[in-house]
Write a structure and sequence with these properties.
Helix content of chain A: 10-25%
Shape of chain A: elongated
Oligomer: homodimer
Number of domains of chain A: 3
Largest interface: A-B, 31 and 31 residues
Distance between the termini of chain A: 76 Å
Number of helices of chain A: 6
CATH class of the largest domain in chain A: Alpha Beta
CATH topology of the largest domain in chain A: DNA Polymerase III, Chain A, domain 2
Chain lengths: 377, 377
């Protein structure tokens, strides 16, 4: 059978789907796209068994067929073609032929039925009442995910924490990520829902959806086992992490009464320099805080280097010395740079610290939590 | 002792020198800069024993001293400082202290005398009459090096070919590089010299000088063993490759009478697609040439894929089929894309092919040579 499609339109489609091809996989067939040609529509799938990306385009064709084609090869070929109609011929000998005005290309394909099962939404046996729908503005969702995903745990033994929690309640949606050392909670109160539920979205799906999101609305369909993100022309379906998320509220201290306000950019610049002095050993930065001044210092015993800086702060509390992992402080501040000032709330050198922008956007609460590291002096 | 310098000026200096720090070296001390403070001038050196980069800046100081400081660390610190005067104090305890308005940083230094000997120009025992000087426009030199360096041999057993030959004669300078499979010769007739000599500049020096060159003139001082490239504020000195360069003229065929002219961009686009079809095995592209048409094809037996394209050419000669390494053809065409048309000159499917821009710049001759690969059909 044959189908025809413009090279640039197909390139646009494949560009969106190529991130769905797993970068390293023992299952070779997943390095392919599934092309489903049916009733004048070409639907292309990329899947890693857990997750699927899917997008469609109209083509001129007769007949229906599914074929499996090497993703990178077809993508690179199409990307390098001039703007021209491409005639695809699916030959019975296992060859797919692409013809343009001046060129003819043959690549091998596999029959569609050999492609593994692709996650669908809703998954089979999902009961209708377990399905919920939210519509979110793409920019809002992007911001929520960007400000949380960095804190996701990378450790397989903490499976529940290897994703971002969507904690949906009547007073809005809380996005939460933590690895046990730090936690990020982003609460958007602008979305009112009529159901209460928790869903953990795996990191790979988050990182792909972040590449796709723009200012347009995105529909989110949720079930107990799967979630679907649906944009105009594009769908991402992923299995959820089927674990119970730890009760994050219990680790957020409520009695941190010592408050320090500092200029965000100034602090970030200092921390960037401190990173250079904490590349080995404990990788620690020390904050020594008094009413109007915070002394920030680091020492790299292995390299024999050290640094001390002072910046202005306004502080209410007892003089305090506290240590942090320099990289973690840097991560957190880097994710709240859009606000001019940030607040640190302390209780003691060994207790969790709360870091927040002084002013947040309307309807948004951001709370970052960071565990200190011991100062051994 | 102490010296003072503006952070941004020092950053500018170190940015130019950091490429001179060898990326991987068993000699740890070479990962450092040598700082020479003398009579109000700070001269910084980066060296890999074979080659040295050197640049100076005025500083406010008393006394003279040489110290060795970790290159990446000092570069990163200075780069991350605000625009401010930095006070350097060289303490007797092996610590170098940097002080700015708000910060104080200590890093370890080593005494200058521990730094290995740095190549100088002229090297000791160079006789005056062996020293020659050329002044070249930076843009001219840059173009000559860019269009040759890609063909340098990467094989240690061909030591003489691991650099670019500067073949200096009364009728101009020829820049030549070859790895035995391809050769690039760039002849600039605009530089008349009063001496005849050959110098082989090692690849690392070429790649660094390419980063430094701009439209300004560069002075080139040449001796039997070393060469110095001198820009206003910057010097690069390198040992030459002390071997005899092969007589490249003997491999350039003079009787290639079959001539094909093609559009450069069109051919380049075709070759880029052919690369996708020659990723395994012989990585070969085949040209089948007739009077008005060249059929270009590739076949990847391992992937079971193949491609054929036809482009217009004007050809004088007998019909010819000839094979090339696809990557090598791509390299060569990529280096003559500034000309609209290129000429291929053939004699037979097993003999070297000459590839040249149809029109070259005034005073410039470019000649690329490519060995074919066997077609086994």
């Amino acid at each position: 059978m044959e189908f025809k499609v413009n090279s640039k339109e197909l390139e646009k489609l494949l560009t969106k789907l190529i991130p769905g091809i797993p970068p390293r996989t023992p299952v070779n067939i997943l390095e392919n796209f599934l092309f489903d040609i049916s009733d004048g529509v070409l639907t292309v799938y990329a899947s890693d068994l857990e997750m699927a990306l899917k997008s469609s385009i109209n083509v001129i064709c007769e007949g229906n067929k599914q074929i499996v084609v090497p993703a990178k090869l077809i993508y690179e070929i199409v990307r390098n073609l001039p703007d021209d109609t491409v005639n695809f011929t699916i030959n019975d000998n296992g060859k797919l032929t692409l013809k343009t005005e001046k060129g003819k290309y043959n690549i091998s394909y596999i029959n569609g039925e050999d492609f593994p099962e692709i996650p669908t939404f809703p998954a089979p046996d999902t009961s209708e009442e377990d399905i919920h729908e939210i519509v979110m503005n793409g920019t809002d969702l992007k911001e929520a995910l960007e400000k949380t995903v960095f804190a996701i745990s990378k450790e397989e033994i903490r499976a529940a924490m290897m994703g971002v929690l969507f904690d949906i309640a009547k007073d809005g949606i809380r996005f939460v990520a933590t690895d046990g050392h730090r936690l990020s909670k982003y609460h958007n109160k602008g979305y009112e829902t009529d159901f209460v539920e928790q869903y953990i979205i795996p990191e790979r799906a988050i990182s792909i959806i972040l590449k796709i999101l723009d200012e347009r609305d995105v529909k989110i369909f949720l079930s107990k086992t799967h979630v679907e993100f649906k944009l105009d022309e594009m769908e991402l379906i992923t299995r959820l992490i089927g674990k119970k998320y730890p009760d994050y509220n219990t680790v957020i201290p409520i009695e941190n009464e010592f408050e320090m306000k500092v200029n965000t950019k100034e602090l970030l610049q200092v921390i960037k320099r401190m990173i250079l002095f904490s590349t080995t050993g404990t990788r620690r930065v020390k904050f020594s805080i008094e009413s109007e001044n915070v002394e920030i210092s680091a020492e790299d015993l292995e390299l024999g280097s050290s640094a001390v800086e002072n910046i202005h702060c306004s502080y209410k509390g007892e003089p305090l010395s506290i240590g942090f992992n320099t990289g973690y402080v840097n991560d957190i501040i880097n994710h709240i740079t859009d606000q001019e000032e940030i607040t640190f709330k302390f209780s003691s050198p060994s207790k969790a610290v709360i870091i927040q922008p002084v002013k947040a956007k309307e309807n948004v609460d951001i709370l970052m939590l960071l565990m200190p590291v011991r100062l051994n002096n």
